[in-house]
Design a protein that fits this description.
The protein has 194 residues and is α+β, with helices and mostly antiparallel strands. It has a single domain, classed as Mog1/PsbP, alpha/beta/alpha sandwich (Protein Transport Mog1p, Chain A, 3-Layer(aba) Sandwich), CATH 3.40.1000. The chain has four helices and ten strands; from the N terminus they run αβββαββαββββαβ. The strands form two sheets. It has a seven-stranded antiparallel sheet with strand order 3-4-5-9-8-7-6, with helices on both faces. The protein has a three-stranded antiparallel sheet with strand order 1-2-10.
Length: 194
């Protein structure tokens, strides 16, 4: 029995490598997208639903309900001004966009947020700048609870656009706030002024 020469073995290895390379190149490519999640979801993500409000449009996060036309939900959300958008999460978090009853001057936006903070609310943050699709404003957050009510956390921001003061808030139970804050960020990332 004669063994193949070294050059014959190299040629055979090269041919096998080329065959494997051709097969790999012609196979369907899989793209892996980095995720903060440790496991992949088996549920396909739905395309975002567009919300067209007065003076703006944005996307409704997956799983959230548009309750803008539900007068009882708007009444339960409280607050002043005109509600333009009311989105509710399955865990009862609320994202509310409204126009204040009167426009607030730019240099008084932080004071306005202080005025809508419940008296004695713990954890009130200093006003910090926020930018919503190129329009600057201010934002604060605070916690709050009442006897017999689940502890809530709120993030509120105000911006002036086209002669109106827009107030955008997220209120959610402290246990679900981080999850609902991700949905608020989706709303803000897709926000476009009309």
């Amino acid at each position: 029995m004669t063994l193949p020469s070294r050059s014959a073995r190299a040629l055979a290895a090269t041919a096998c490598g080329a065959t494997l390379l051709i097969a790999a190149c012609s196979a369907a490519r899989v793209t892996v997208t980095p995720s903060s999640s440790t496991s992949a979801s088996s549920v396909p993500t739905a395309a975002p639903r567009l919300f067209a409000g007065t003076g703006f449009r944005t996307d409704i996060p997956a799983g959230w309900l548009d309750q803008t036309n539900d007068q009882s939900a708007i009444g339960a959300a409280g607050g002043g001004g005109t509600v333009l958008m009311l989105l509710a999460s399955p865990d009862r978090g609320l994202i509310v966009a409204r126009i204040t009853a009167q426009p607030v001057p730019d240099d008084q936006l932080a004071q306005y947020l202080t005025s809508i903070t419940p008296p004695g609310a713990p954890g009130v943050t200093q006003a910090e700048p926020v930018n919503i699709n190129g329009v600057s404003g201010v934002m604060i957050s605070f916690a709050g609870s009442s006897p017999g009510v689940v502890a809530q956390e709120t993030e509120a921001m105000v911006v002036n656009q086209a002669g109106n003061t827009y107030e955008i808030t997220l209120s959610a139970a402290q246990a679900g706030f981080a999850h609902d804050a991700t949905a608020l960020q989706e709303v803000l990332n897709s926000w476009r002024w009309a």
